[in-house]
Amino acid sequence: MRKWIDLNSDMGESFGNYVLGRPEEVMKLINHANVACAYHAGDPTWMRRTVEWAKKYGVTLGAHPGFPDLMGFGRRLMNITTQEAKDYVVYQAGALKAFADMVGVKLEAAKPHGAFWVWAQQNEDNSRAVLEGFRAVNPDIVMYLPALPRYPLMETAERMGFRVVKEFYPGLAYADDGNITVKRTYGVENVEEIVELVMRFALEGKTTAVSGKVIDVEADSVCVHGDVINAPEVLEALRAALSRAGIEARSALRAGEAAPRRMERASA
Amino acid sequence: MRKWIDLNSDMGESFGNYVLGRPEEVMKLINHANVACAYHAGDPTWMRRTVEWAKKYGVTLGAHPGFPDLMGFGRRLMNITTQEAKDYVVYQAGALKAFADMVGVKLEAAKPHGAFWVWAQQNEDNSRAVLEGFRAVNPDIVMYLPALPRYPLMETAERMGFRVVKEFYPGLAYADDGNITVKRTYGVENVEEIVELVMRFALEGKTTAVSGKVIDVEADSVCVHGDVINAPEVLEALRAALSRAGIEARSALRAGEAAPRRMERASA
Amino acid sequence: MRKWIDLNSDMGESFGNYVLGRPEEVMKLINHANVACAYHAGDPTWMRRTVEWAKKYGVTLGAHPGFPDLMGFGRRLMNITTQEAKDYVVYQAGALKAFADMVGVKLEAAKPHGAFWVWAQQNEDNSRAVLEGFRAVNPDIVMYLPALPRYPLMETAERMGFRVVKEFYPGLAYADDGNITVKRTYGVENVEEIVELVMRFALEGKTTAVSGKVIDVEADSVCVHGDVINAPEVLEALRAALSRAGIEARSALRAGEAAPRRMERASA
Amino acid sequence: MRKWIDLNSDMGESFGNYVLGRPEEVMKLINHANVACAYHAGDPTWMRRTVEWAKKYGVTLGAHPGFPDLMGFGRRLMNITTQEAKDYVVYQAGALKAFADMVGVKLEAAKPHGAFWVWAQQNEDNSRAVLEGFRAVNPDIVMYLPALPRYPLMETAERMGFRVVKEFYPGLAYADDGNITVKRTYGVENVEEIVELVMRFALEGKTTAVSGKVIDVEADSVCVHGDVINAPEVLEALRAALSRAGIEARSALRAGEAAPRRMERASA
User: Fold this and answer.
1) Is 0.80 surpassed by the pTM of this model?
2) Better-scored residue on pLDDT, B188 or B253
């Protein structure tokens, strides 16, 4: 059994007058935040607030840049060039790093958002453009990436020497080969379902694909929706279940190692 | 007579398909660039190009953040809060710093753009918000500011211990008290007029106010329009006139001191 | 006592992934909708949905254009020109009219939003620019305007021959002279307070100023926040209270007359 | 030989401070304008100016909506839904129609811009969404479409009963089958080359594909770049050459018929 797990959420997605979910409450309950950088979501004021909360609640900080498509929340594939992709990463992650510097926390990690992630994993050139952009902002930056079997973004990150934290996505539809289809949850999450999915992953390293087949998932972090209205309740239930099982919630960036590992039960 | 003068221009104001003037040619002829940060003008790709040119041509780098008003080119006053102002500065200047870090140059200076400058100089609170934002991005940042008699932004900058490079604006309408009204030049600049204005300032430290009165201007830098179509010709004529007068064009950031000074002629 | 009252709300303010309040439920309970036109809030998809709901629930339709400032929700004064103001009105209201034409309802009314309203009422030139823009889109358009004693937008509208529906704002701070200061309500509205304010206005034509002084308010419509999360509950309580008092809720555009009037009690 | 030809250009693509080419001069020389609607290019003020010039110079008016991607000038494919496409068309074309109504000209035609055209012609569903959007704004709207052999947008338009004006693109790379690849021209156009291409098309109905093969092109309109700096010179040279050949330049919307036709020489 594993000794710890990292709970991460996409944060900083509010924009101006539009508040998504209950962000400060969520921040108290997660270990790592992927912070939107004002392209697909967020604005400078929400970025600063989010970074301040990250510091206040001891949450590690990742950049979560997206497509310049606020109207589509960065969920629509755009046919940008690799040069544009790199420029957009440097711009967004660089802006977030400035807030982190000001507030006194480190920008330690990154993950492309939504359709920008889809774009980045289309081929090695795209992957490389995005990864070079992140590295330009912080040479030691750690990538948070979905724990899928094999895909260009993960492979390129590993080939380029990035430390990678692999993520389990309890809300997504897994295919038999471990690949995922985004299943969007709006408004309210089913607490019990999420807890069951995460605990099965945490205790057994397994999840059930859409087909019904049980598959293995190796990951150190769980990506929990931070924008649904009951995200705090989901996270509290998760933390309680993890605690009962003796699994600590803490950031993978504070765990001493990033490679997926499975702790053996002492008595087993 | 002064031994050197700093020629600065507002740069990086092109946006996507829209190219303002002949930016690379301008960059070869100036000493310092105030680079737009994708709010009132510019985009990540033009920012990177501009920073790359600054490095290539030995031009020192300043951030030139503006209001989030691309449609108005940042020239329309917006009633933002001081907190928003600071957040917008950190966002924009932070993004530019990331490009500078990537390209291998320093982001050494700053100046708020257009109506954001007007906002910043309305009172001390506004001034302080903008200055704190710049300082958060670089604690040693130098302010480029119009050489006007007394106004909150200049006074607050000096009180907060900022190094300030004072600028002469040859294209502006000076009042008798040395204050300015923005006189926008579109398309084409009158080369002879600009050269005459700058040389009179450079040689005598004087300019003629709108009323006809001759006033003193103490400054180390001249802000030349970089977006007009004949900006390279203006700059070449300026450089030739300065050279004939034995005045070197170089960045005030490379001059060893920023305080306005008047070099005495050796034989005088 | 009055026989009817018009309940209006600002609608169509959701944007992309960001949903404000419970818009369809609100639409069932109001008589008139001021629909955002994708500048300060809203987008084409939310505009169409909002117009479709207006048709479905028999709600009359007004354009509610704002400043091009999504990040500030149109609440920050911008120093635009009168020509720009007129152009922005024609653009936004014209786009909304196209949706109305498509869906088969009429765009019958208009009101500038937030800081754009503040701008419009600064002086007669501004008022005229905005009003000419609306009239260009529909020569018979009716203005919904706050029932304040005297101000340029109301006076200019009347001078130009516009029909005006005057609005009571239960959520605002009234000065002794009947002028208002915007008091923003976030998240949740106090149902009882709103009902009490509206019923006092509906039954007596009076409200209490911030100073404690009781003042007269002549209006035919009540502007109720449509974006708070309990807006449907507020509106249901209002409708119940009005019904108990024998006052019908219906659009002022369907009432046969627009001038403020006070119906005498039959038995009085 | 044909008796007339329609010269059309994409217009209204300036934005705020950014002026593309010499728009008013171009407007004097063309017969039909495809006007940008403030998504991929343009803004309300440039839209109004463009419509006013269209009226002043007797140019017929088409809507030219694009993707919401100003930074990419609408040239990057975006994976939007058919519903979004229709909503974006109604919004943009509706706004333009409001300016046309105000100025007193008719919005008679339409063409999707750049990557939005590419999206629209991907399949029949996409084509239908865009066409329904245009028809919602004007039931009699005429489509300007590239004269390619067979493709969904053209076929769907004809099936839905739209009148179609077919366009020849002198600046594009034609494949042997008559299909085109966009070849962007920046800055300056080669006048002689354009005149030669257009005259060959006008006199013989032919053009040379990239492979060297001569192919037939049936069209009534020629789409000439309106944004290059020498667009007026290109158009003047074109008009002179057409005039020498006895071919009148006039809008296809004023020609009495839209179907492509080839006038036989009287003496032939």
Assistant:
1) yes
2) B253
